[in-house]
């Protein structure tokens, strides 16, 4: 790379992912920066849901705070006509939505978001340090998801297992969220 | 912290997820250029500001992002009920004597 730059005289930008190399672990909680994924912000009326579900290969959930997942692809209910579709399996959800003729709006937000995995027996205590929602298993079961607030930042929470949450935040806020989470993890009891 | 029931999320959520958006049930005039300045002032600036029951718009901005209407008591700060945007003003309020 360096040689090529010298030769052509063109400087090339290097991409540094947000939070690259960051990780933190405390007694009861481990934080990890999750792999980049394809993400789509999807808005659609009721009439388009069947076609979109077929194209995406999973049934878009209609109940508040629920999600659907299939083969590394998740659809999280955010609002009555809004979903966040995440694909971790190198699929192309934006392209899949593009084939649908029915009215919808699909916006690629892959690089807008950064995902942080929070796992361990102290996960609820860690997230509750900044999130005012009830995150107990009865109120927020496995598979539940919600857009909410964490400290002063809007995040999307998705419970993937009893002791694991996926925290989706905007890239520019990721340093704040990660630092807040690692501070909270230090204090979290199981 | 207040818990506010979002009619779209169908559950109570902490107040930090919400924003107040002013008085509810204020219809914009269909031909706003035709109304007099006095009428415009009434529509645009004058609000009821009652002591007691008030009808307000709220937005679940850090949640489902939807606007909805809420009935609130300005004295006790308690929410009486919430209902979806576009629904008529409720005629009977639960737990309110008058």
From TrEMBL, chain A:
SUPFAM superfamilies tied to this protein: Folate-binding domain (SSF103025)
Gene3D superfamilies per UniProt: Heterotetrameric sarcosine oxidase (3.30.70.1520), Probable tRNA modification gtpase trme, domain 1 (3.30.1360.120)
Disordered: region residues: 1-21
UniProt xrefs under InterPro entries: SoxG, SoxG_het, TrmE/GcvT-like
Domain of life, source organism: Bacteria
NCBIfam families linked to this entry: soxG (TIGR01375)
The protein, known as: Sarcosine oxidase subunit gamma
Organism in which the protein naturally occurs: Mesorhizobium retamae
Source species taxonomy: Bacteria, Pseudomonadati, Pseudomonadota, Alphaproteobacteria, Hyphomicrobiales
TrEMBL record, chain B:
InterPro entries documented for this protein: SoxD (IPR006279), SoxD_sf (IPR038561)
Family annotation (Pfam families): SoxD
NCBIfam families: soxD
Protein's recorded name: Sarcosine oxidase subunit delta
């Amino acid at each position: 790379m360096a040689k090529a730059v010298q030769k052509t005289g063109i400087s090339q930008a290097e991409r540094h992912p947000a939070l690259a190399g960051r990780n933190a672990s405390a007694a009861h909680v481990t934080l990890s920066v999750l792999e980049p994924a394809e993400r789509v912000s999807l808005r659609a009326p009721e009439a388009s849901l069947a076609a979109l579900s077929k194209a995406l290969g999973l049934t878009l959930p209609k109940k508040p705070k629920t999600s659907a997942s299939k083969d590394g692809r998740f659809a999280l209910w955010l609002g009555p006509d809004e979903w966040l579709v995440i694909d971790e399996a190198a699929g192309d959800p934006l392209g899949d939505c593009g084939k649908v003729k029915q009215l919808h709006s699909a916006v690629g937000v892959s690089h807008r978001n950064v995902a942080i995995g929070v796992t361990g027996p102290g996960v609820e205590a860690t997230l509750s340090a900044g999130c005012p929602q009830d995150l107990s298993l009865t109120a927020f079961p496995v598979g539940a998801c919600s857009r909410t607030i964490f400290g002063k930042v809007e995040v999307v929470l998705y419970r993937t297992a009893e002791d694991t949450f996926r925290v989706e935040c905007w890239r520019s806020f990721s340093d704040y969220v990660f630092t807040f989470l690692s501070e909270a993890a230090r204090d979290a009891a199981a | 912290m207040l818990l506010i029931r979002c009619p779209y999320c169908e559950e109570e959520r902490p107040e930090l997820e919400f924003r107040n958006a002013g008085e509810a049930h204020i219809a914009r005039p269909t031909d706003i250029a035709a109304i007099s300045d006095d009428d415009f002032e009434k529509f645009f600036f004058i609000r009821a500001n009652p002591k007691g029951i008030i009808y307000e718009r709220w937005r679940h901005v850090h949640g489902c992002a939807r606007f909805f209407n809420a009935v609130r008591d300005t004295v006790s700060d308690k929410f009486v009920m919430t209902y979806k945007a576009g629904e008529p003003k409720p005629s009977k309020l639960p737990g309110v004597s008058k």
